[in-house]
Give the backbone structure.
Amino acid sequence: MAEKILLIEDEQKLARFVELELTHEGYAVTKAFDGRMGLEMAEQGGFDLLLLDVMLPGLSGLELLRRLRRTSQVPVIMVTARDAVMDKVTGLDMGADDYITKPFEIEELLARIRVALRKRGGEKQDLPPSLVSGDLVLDAARRRVEYAGQPIELTNREFELLKTLMENKTIVMSREKLLEKAWGYDYMGETNVVDVYVRYLRAKIDDPFGVKHIHTVRGAGYTFRDI
Ligand code: CA
């Protein structure tokens, strides 16, 4: 299916030219000629990318972007006037993915569109995968844990500890190692804080279901095993 681009540009000649080029490249193009109309269409969604002129009647491109970013993370390439350095900086701060300066070569625009689309597509695929052990599922992207489809409430620390253990399945993890990985700093205090949290975790993911994932390895630490 063709990727959909919303082109928000008040210079109709330029808009028509870009539309023809993008259509020729296989994109499906929709045009808006002022900021308000552009925002309305962008908020309705369904676009893979926005090409957004900064100098627009109705609502400036920067203001449009600021409002749109409250609800949408669609990739946005800003089109700025030559030397409008502030517009570029502000636009990038507001969450634009890239910018291109007028007048531009169509080849450069096409290249930037490809990069923005690829980058965004890549981010989706880069979501951390779920960690699974039998009925126990830890969804790292959504920070959710389930046992047999039943949600389990974990605190942040419990979640990080479980994630670390599941990522290192069957490996014996020392208390120091667990602190470093799940607490994220060189913890100077007592390592028995790990024992306390392991107990909390067992009470949530093992004991209620009559299973045993987290094993104590005497004198060494803890290990997570499938059951
Ligand atoms: Ca303009």
